[in-house]
Fold this protein.
Amino acid sequence: MLSLDVIASALRAQSAALAILEQNIANASTAGYTQQVPVMRALGSRGDPRLPAGGGGVALDHVERVRDAFLDLQIRAQLGPQAQQDALGRVYTAVQGILREPGHGGLAQRITGLFAAFASAAAAPGLGAQREQLLSEARMFVSTVQDLADQLGQQRRSLDTEVRTSVVSANGLLEQVAQLNGQIATMSASGGNANQLLDQRDRTLDELSRLTGASFLLDTRGMASVQLGGKALVNGTSVMRLDTAVGTSTGMLNVVYTGDGSTVIPTAGVLAGLLTGRDSVIPGVLGQIDTVVAAVVAKVNAVHRNGFGTADQPTINYVPGAPAAFQGVTLGALPPLRAGVWKITADGLGGLSAVFTPAGGVPEAAVTGRIVAGGTNTSLIPGLILQAPAALAAGTDTVTVTGPARDLFDPAGTTARTLSLASELNGPARLALAAQANSPGDGAIAQRLADLVSALTMSTGTMTYGAYWRDVVSTLGTDASSNGAKSTASTYALDQLRARRESISGVSLDEQGIELVRVQRAYEAAAHVLTVEDRMMGALLGMFR
Amino acid sequence: MDTSGTRVTLGLRSMNALRGIEGLLQQLEATQQKLSSQHRVSTPADDPAAAVQIMSFDEQLTLLGTHEASASDARSRLGAADTGLGSATSILQRAKELALQAGNATLSSSDRARIAPEVAALRDALTDVANRRFGDEYLFAGSRTNVAPYAGYASTLSYQGDRAALKRQIGPNASVTVNVNAGDTLDPARTAIAALYDHLVSGDLDGVRADLATLESAAVTMRDGRAQVGAGLARVNEAQTGLGATRAGIEDLRSRLDSVDMAEALTHFRQLQISLQAALQATSQTLGLSIFNFLR
């Protein structure tokens, strides 16, 4: 009779093993499924001295889950950085797409176009067409800059939204881990097979790594505790969720712990990549665009303020010296005066000498003339009528000539968002391209404006506008490229680790097929033994008929 | 990937197959992009150093364009000035001949009087030359290009323009003056011819003889002006040649940095296609194989 029990145990054990094999085969392509191996144990003789030792049959001792926990740790340590580089890479791609360099109507082309338009206007300042073209280029410069600022701002806001949704997802995963912790503990305590739940928890922990770069510990109870930034997010079955709070200085979301509200600074994972892109890469580029805009506005306005538009007349401010040389100085008809300062010296004997210092320039060679007592001189400085006193006196008087002092760009608009043309620039005639009034053929101010493109206007006088912006683009490109290289390397390392995990924990159909045959044969053999026992029993019983 | 001693599962085989195929597809996509856009460098990350060089070349080419346009404008203006001065020289030459004729003591005063109308015509013709236009602008008025150098046809006229030299930038550090103004270059001649007319009409023989000297010095002034224009034209010519050579050089360098070698790209594309085909074929044939195909 005992042998029937042995056979029964064999049949039971092989059936159980079969169930495990079937489960493996069914899940051969399930993501994250860990191979299960049925481990048999030979049963002892239950103390009967007549039977050979270990004669109690066989039982399914336990189901082994083929998993390398250390490999899991390594993979999770790699998942965080890889996801971070990937997320940051997407930001770099988006920013490069917005900037559209090299070429393709990016800021570099707009800057060059603006100053080239100044040069064209310098060659034909009287022609309405060139002035219209210049105004049009200036408008395009403004709209391109504003577009860049808008698009970069939008990109920042969409990254902000992604931060929020990532935190929501992370919270869901944290809850799952806590719940699974409880379920696994219960099932293991009652001796059940918790392998399915363990697989699920491993998948969740992987995803948490990818999202947040959190680290994990398996504690003595077999529960997974999740840590981020030194604080425990999951401990056993209790969860401290993450939250988002608007940062007062940035207006963007910070990730915070719900426990004490302090800010989380993730160092790996998708969140870390999003935050770096949102708070470092994009504001960096925006700040540099602002720097270029401020420099263009300041330098262009400084030159433009010295110029005259087609209808502008100069204003003179006469300051008599002590003693005064003249009785008065007035504007002549249609004066071709330039913006600047005239210092006119009379020697008291009728001799005159005048030195002109143009606005923003150096004093020029003196011009000389003569005047009679009580008379006027209109030839010393064309456009100025000098009135001598009744008795000639020696002295030096100052005449300041100012033009319309018109800005090209609104001086208050020194950032990309606020850049705009000056409101008084409401037509091409008001472009102050001439150095002197009533001189439609004069484009000297336009030429000085054009020359700004090669002047060292940026970085405390070491770079041109173009060179500065090229430097910005170069740095961005190098950063993007090196992040891409890191991402490629991380992905390769991760792939290698994942391949190893698959090799250890994956289901090999060939293996399972052969195991099936083995189990099947074992089952058949046990069944056959049953038949033999039955016949023997029958023969024995037949003896008593 | 070194697979010796590794346990190969279905999952591992499909992971590897997918990775290989995805890699090929990515390369195919990148090559296709290059072929259709004809740009080797589409984003700064593709090649940061080259991207910046390309941007620098683009800036240089645009600025070169402005110099080329300026040089072309300079050439037109100087050419027009030269033509005008040529006419003025002929006029002055004729006036000198008439002055010589009129200065001959053997001429009667009525003969002298008959010369006068032609001299008047020469005086007015020179006024017309001074008032010549270049498009919408007065050519010889300095920077006051909307004002005719001389108003009307009187004997005594004062020059209404200014003495400004108009310049054009024909290179990064090179500018050329593109005008002469009537006040400096033509006024002496006009005044001399007007004086000649007045002296002929009033029968002032001494005046006429003195006018010959004045006309001669006016001719020197005009010649100087013309020489200046000629020198300007020569500089513009030279500048234009230089600009053309510079442009060709920069465009060549730029295209070497950015353009796609079509033959190389197409060959690479074809190779990738063949590799992809082989990978797909191999995958489809081996991925389905397992012991279950053979167990009964």
User: Anything to note?
Assistant: Chain B is about 70% helix and 5% strand. The radius of gyration of chain B is 39 Å. The helical segments of chain B are 10-37, 48-102, 109-130, 182-185, 187-202, 205-258, 262-286. The first strand of chain B starts at residue 133 and ends at 134.
